[in-house]
Amino acid sequence: MYRPDPVPHPDARVMIVEHEPAVRDALEMMLVLNGYRALGASDGPTALAQLRSTPCSLLIVDLARCGMDGESFLREARRLAPAEPPSVVLIADADDAPLPPAEAYLPRPFEWGALLQQVTRLLPRSAR
Questions:
Q1: Which residues of 89-123 are buried (b: 16+ CB within 10 A; e: fewer)?
Q2: How far is 27 from 17, CA to CA, in rounded Å?
Q3: Strand extents, DSSP E, 1-124
Q4: How much is the pTM?
Q5: Residue pair 56/14 in contact by the 8 Å Cβ criterion
Q6: Is 86 helix (H, G, I), strand (E, B) or coil?
Q7: 27 half-sphere exposure, CB direction, 13 A CA radius
Q8: Among 36, 42, 85, 126, which one has the highest count of C-beta atoms within 10 angstroms of its own C-beta?
Q9: Number of Cα atoms under 13 Å in the Cβ half of residue 31
Q10: Digit-coded pLDDT (tens) for 14-70
Q11: Where would I find the beta strands (DSSP E) of the chain?
Q12: Rg, Å, the chain Cα set
């Protein structure tokens, strides 16, 4: 039986905003297996509803498919946690420009290892 190592990031919670259930589930599993707490949302409005009760340190957002304007979504997500707004990784197509401000951008299709590298880099020090 597989037993993951002890959780290296016990305070870090990552939200994945992705409309494809299989991709969202796979990303959640990858994060959990690497010691993060992860939750998913199928679109921006669902993610905002979850963020009202469950703060997250990092958002991974499939920008073109979040179901609302990306800049509006990010502004509202950051407003919900003004003391510690979440870091953001945007997954976007090359033609999605202009992109809203974020800490990292990954082109679609993205490399899973590159995403995990960004997650590790962006989590607040207190969550490591």
A1: bbbbeeebeeebebebebeeebeeeebbebbeebb
A2: 10
A3: 13-17, 37-41, 58-62, 87-92, 104-107
A4: 0.86
A5: yes
A6: coil
A7: 28
A8: 36
A9: 26
A10: 999 999 999 999 999 999 988 889 999 999 999 999 999 999 999 999 887 778 888
A11: 13-17, 37-41, 58-62, 87-92, 104-107
A12: 14
Nearest to 41 by CA among 58, 69, 26, 20: 20
Query: Tokens 């039986």 belong to which residue?
Result: 1
Distance from C-alpha of 3 to C-alpha of 117, rounded to nearest angstrom: 22
Q: Which two tokens stand for residue 36?
A: 């993060």
- 77: tokens are 């997500």
User: What one-character DSSP code corresponds to residue 108?
Assistant: S
Look up residue 16 and give its amino acid.
I
Q: What DSSP character marks residue 118?
A: H
